[in-house]
């Protein structure tokens, strides 16, 4: 429920400032956030009212999120060639997960891991590039800085969570609490990003 | 159970710690870099301002030298001629007309000089007009035969950059007059897309650029072109004259 409130707030801010970033690569986050919101509502409904498992929804989310991040990083990093290694890795991870893990019964962990690694790697590449440019003087006024900071910090926290998933099995509340902290940072940075885009 | 709880707490603490540390490191690195760039930019601005002040002093000195030349070689000569004619007119009153005509010419030259050295005049003119006035002055005192042309649509140049570009050209003109023993000076300005190309050449004695390229004059020209974001191409060969090309991009 907390995540839903956070998402509604983020989508609200994203809609409010839409005109200030609709011509930038960040415009892709508007439909993406709407999709995430619908996904979370559906997951909440399935889990609490229909008593269904939500893994398929999150597996689809992983695929969508990967391509959204990939496309966005491809644009903001000015179309580097090396980035194409990640879709190849991701497709391999999907094939691996499809063979070893059930799409409907479990989360595709290899795919999520590739998504996380790509996000961390591309975020560091973005920051490296930004640090070398004169734009760093106004870094806090750049929407892309806040988006990347949110993505990087989220995945830096999420990768250990993913790796310790075995230990955390059955500790849903602990898992949810950590995820809530990471989501708070992630969406707060997005909100700051949408806000600074109007300045 | 207790050990498992401790393990979970450790994992949560580690993740939260990792997130906090990442945020602190991220902002510390960016702030450090930002401060360094601001410091560098302040230093560059100070360097520019110092160079600008130095350039303005040099322009003033060069202008004073030009006034001295013009008073001595042009207006002074006219006044001497007027004096000789006035003395002759004592016996031949019909020559008084000639005296008046020479004094009239001297007055016109004096007015032109007065206008040219007025600082307001320099600030009100654009770079092309200022350069044209400068080389016209050399023409007027018969130092050198000059030609001037402009091509393309001019774009605005900041006053500070104009001062520096003007001084670069003035230094070239002075070198041409003082050392090159040239008889012709050609100046072309071309505004091409968002670049101003200034080409100046003389037909003087030239020099071996490879041997004498370390000279202060060229170093100054290069340094000044760099601080306004321009590039230079300097060419000279013994007996074949000297040329300079400056490319300055619109800001």
Radius of gyration of chain B: 30 Å
Largest sheet of chain B: 5 strands, mixed
Structural class of chain A: mainly alpha
Overall average pLDDT of chain B:
85
Strand pairing plus helix content of chain B: what structural class? Answer: alpha+beta
**Through-space gap between termini of chain B:** 69 Å
Number of helical regions of chain A: 8
What's the order of the H and E elements of chain A? HHHHHHHH
**Strand residue percentage of chain B:** 15-25%
CA radius of gyration of chain A is 17 Å
N-to-C span of chain A: 32 Å
Strand order of the largest sheet of chain B: 1-2-3-5-4
Q: Poorly predicted ranges of chain B (pLDDT <50, ≥5 residues)?
A: none
Range of helix content of chain B:
55-70%
Nearest-integer average pLDDT of chain A: 89
**Topology, number of strands of chain B:** 5
Biggest beta sheet attributes of chain A: none
Shape of chain B from CA axes?
elongated
Report the largest inter-chain contact: A-B, 25 and 19 residues
Portion in beta strands of chain A: under 5%
Give a verbal description of the structure:
The complex is a heterodimer of chains A (about 200) and B (about 250). Chain A is mostly helical and about 200 residues long. Chain A has 8 helices and no strands. The two termini of chain A are about 30 Å apart. In chain B, helix 4 runs parallel beside helix 5. The termini of chain B are far apart. The interface of A and B includes residues 152 and 182 of A.
Give structural attributes.
heterodimer, A: 199 residues, mainly alpha, globular, B: 251 residues, alpha+beta, five-stranded mixed β-sheet, 7 helices, 5 strands, elongated
């Amino acid at each position: 429920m907390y995540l839903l409130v956070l998402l509604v707030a983020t989508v609200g801010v994203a809609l409010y400032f839409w005109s200030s970033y609709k011509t930038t690569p960040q415009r892709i986050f508007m439909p993406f956030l709407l999709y995430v919101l619908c996904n979370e509502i559906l997951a909440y409904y399935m889990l609490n009212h229909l008593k269904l498992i939500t893994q398929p929804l999150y597996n689809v989310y992983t695929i969508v999120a990967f391509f959204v991040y990939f496309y966005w990083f491809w644009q903001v990093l000015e179309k580097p060639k090396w980035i194409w290694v990640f879709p190849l890795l991701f497709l391999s991870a999907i094939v691996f997960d499809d063979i070893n893990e059930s799409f409907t019964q479990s989360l595709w962990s290899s795919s999520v891991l590739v998504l996380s690694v790509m996000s961390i790697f591309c975020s560091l590449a973005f920051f490296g590039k930004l640090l070398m440019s004169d734009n760093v003087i106004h870094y806090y006024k750049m929407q892309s800085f806040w988006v990347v900071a949110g993505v990087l910090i989220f995945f830096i926290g999420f990768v250990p969570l993913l790796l310790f998933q075995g230990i955390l099995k059955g500790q849903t509340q602990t898992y949810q609490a950590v995820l809530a902290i990471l989501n708070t940072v992630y969406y707060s940075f997005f909100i700051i990003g949408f806000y600074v885009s109007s300045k | 159970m207790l050990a498992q709880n401790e393990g979970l707490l450790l994992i949560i603490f580690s993740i939260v710690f990792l997130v906090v540390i990442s945020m602190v490191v991220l902002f510390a690195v960016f702030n450090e870099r930002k401060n360094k760039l601001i410091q560098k930019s302040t230093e560059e601005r100070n360097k520019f301002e110092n160079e600008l002040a130095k350039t303005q002093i040099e322009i003033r000195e060069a202008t004073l030298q030009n006034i001295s030349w013009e008073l001595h070689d042009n207006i002074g000569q006219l006044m001497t001629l007027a004096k000789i004619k006035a003395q002759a007119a004592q016996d031949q009153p019909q020559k008084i007309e000639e005296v008046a005509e020479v004094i009239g010419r001297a007055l016109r030259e004096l007015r032109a000089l007065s206008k040219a050295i007025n600082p307001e005049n320099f600030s009100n003119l654009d770079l092309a007009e200022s350069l044209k006035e400068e080389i016209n002055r050399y023409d007027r005192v018969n130092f050198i035969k000059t030609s001037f042309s402009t091509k393309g649509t001019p774009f605005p140049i900041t006053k500070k950059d104009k001062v520096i570009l003007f001084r670069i050209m003035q230094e070239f003109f002075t070198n041409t007059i003082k050392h090159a023993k040239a008889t012709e000076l050609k100046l072309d300005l071309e505004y091409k897309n968002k670049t101003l190309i200034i080409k100046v050449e003389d037909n003087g004695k030239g020099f071996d650029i490879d041997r004498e390229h370390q000279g202060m004059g060229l170093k100054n020209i290069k340094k000044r072109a760099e601080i306004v974001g321009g590039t230079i191409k300097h060419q000279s060969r013994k007996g074949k004259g000297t040329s300079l090309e400056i490319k300055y991009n619109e800001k």
